[in-house]
């Protein structure tokens, strides 16, 4: 299991290709540290503010790492809490 985490050290600030900056680690990247080839990945996003689902599809920055790790299947929830699958 992985969760989004904040990075506090300035060394971890990253500038993305689109010009935005990030200083956190997505849950997908967090959990990939423990993944093995052939594992399945399920991603769920839950808003604390109103206890509702949010889109949890892995972003374009995480997807190359998911593929490189050899994950066999990726499932994620949409904003209605329905599970969707990604083709890898």
Please tell me about this protein's structure.
The chain has 88 residues and is an alpha+beta fold. It is 14% helix and 31% strand. The strands form four sheets. Strands 5-8-9 form a three-stranded mixed sheet, with no helix packed on it. The chain has a two-stranded antiparallel ribbon with strand order 1-4. A two-stranded antiparallel sheet has the order 2-3. The protein starts with a strand and ends with a strand.
List keywords for this structure.
14% helix; globular; 2 helices; 88 residues; two-stranded antiparallel sheet; alpha+beta
Number of strands: 9
- Give the number of helices: 2
- How many domains? The number is 1
**Biggest sheet, in brief?**
3 strands, mixed
Strand order of the largest sheet: 5-8-9
**Helix-strand pattern, N to C?**
EEEEHEEEHEE
Average pLDDT: 83
**What best-fitting shape do the alpha-carbon axes yield?**
globular
Structural class by SSE content = alpha+beta
Summarize the structure.
Helix content is 14%, strand content 31%. With 88 residues, it is α+β, with helices and mostly antiparallel strands.
Question: What secondary-structure arrangement, pairings included, does this model have?
Answer:
Layout: E1 5-6, E2 14-15, E3 21-22, E4 24-25, H1 27-32, E5 40-43, E6 45-47, E7 52-54, H2 63-68, E8 73-77, E9 83-86
Parallel strand pairs: 5-8
Antiparallel strand pairs: 1-4, 2-3, 6-7, 8-9
